[in-house]
């Protein structure tokens, strides 16, 4: 079970890995490395030699203990946004780095269930990211709770609904 695959032990691989298809995969890789302190796996960087146009058919960026696979979207492929949750140590700092690189804030850093902060952003390729971080203020009284009798849903809920309604092909 631990036999290496291209010098990586199977035990070092995650069970589930996300895949993002975007126009401008190389730029997306730069974004992921800058925003999430990711590291591209050089041996996984695979140009599409059949297209012979400089596009990538496969690349991998390690973020923490996870891998995001990336490829360039072909002209006849539909826009398919990724929706990815990332645990970070500082949601505000990660959000700042994302915005600095062209992302749009969907949900500002907010207290959330279970002692977490949550934030969301839409990257320049139309992918929606959920950031979860340990709560900046660990006071349980400040954490989001559900009041199903409240006629007004929280911004954590409404910002997601608004973002989903507005998702469009960024190209």
From TrEMBL:
SUPFAM superfamilies in UniProt: Glyoxalase/Bleomycin resistance protein/Dihydroxybiphenyl dioxygenase (SSF54593)
Protein name according to UniProt: Glyoxalase/bleomycin resistance protein/dioxygenase
Keyword terms of this UniProt record: Dioxygenase, Oxidoreductase
InterPro entries xrefs: Glyas_Bleomycin-R_OHBP_Dase, Glyas_Fos-R_dOase_dom
GO molecular function: dioxygenase activity
UniProt keyword Oxidoreductase present: yes
Domain Glyoxalase/fosfomycin resistance/dioxygenase: 20-131
Top-level division of the source organism's lineage: Bacteria
């Amino acid at each position: 079970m631990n036999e290496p695959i291209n010098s990586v032990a199977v035990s070092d691989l995650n069970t589930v890995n996300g895949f993002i298809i975007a126009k401008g995969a190389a730029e997306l890789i730069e974004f992921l490395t800058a925003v999430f302190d990711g590291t591209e796996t050089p041996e996984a960087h695979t140009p599409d030699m059949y297209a012979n146009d400089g596009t990538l058919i496969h690349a991998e960026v390690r973020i923490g203990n996870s891998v995001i696979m990336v490829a360039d979207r072909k002209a006849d492929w539909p826009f398919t946004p990724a929706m990815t949750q990332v645990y970070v140590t500082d949601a505000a700092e990660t959000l700042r780095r994302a915005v600095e690189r062209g992302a749009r804030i969907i949900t500002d850093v907010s207290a959330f269930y279970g002692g977490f902060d949550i934030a969301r952003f839409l990257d320049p390729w139309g992918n929606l990211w959920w950031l979860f971080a340990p709560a900046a203020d660990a006071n349980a009284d400040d954490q989001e709770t559900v009041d199903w009798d409240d006629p007004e849903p929280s911004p954590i809920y409404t910002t997601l609904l608004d973002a989903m309604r507005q998702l469009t092909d960024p190209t």
